[in-house]
Specification:
This protein is mostly helical. It contains 8 helices and 2 strands, in the order ααββαααααα.
Length: 138
Amino acid sequence: MSARYSFQLCARDYDGALATMRAFPRDYIESGASSGPTGYFKGDVLARAGKAAAAEIEWRAALDVVERRLAPRPNDRTLLVFKALLLASLGDRPGAEKIWRATRELFGDVGEEWADHRLRLELLPDDEALDYLATQIE
């Protein structure tokens, strides 16, 4: 993701971060630095801004994009990770956990450290999430 978007998100400039994402003309970003459905990132901004209904619309649209891209490539690690992230964001914890675990079984990890971190915090029971976090700060 762009440094501008990340900066705006961390600075809680949600309008700016949303504008940055809306500037992308496609529904999926593919670059050397990062890739993923723009709707996932827009939904994340909207959720942080307290706009849950709008976030859900973006996440559902992003899930449709991911599903279309997965059809010809059902074992694409990046797409599987975004499917898990989107399902978790939409509240489908069992579905997200199933995809996350399958991805880890197929590939040994999810490839993107930030995504794995977020999924662990979303999907692991609190005691396991705390154990994981403890290993990250030691």
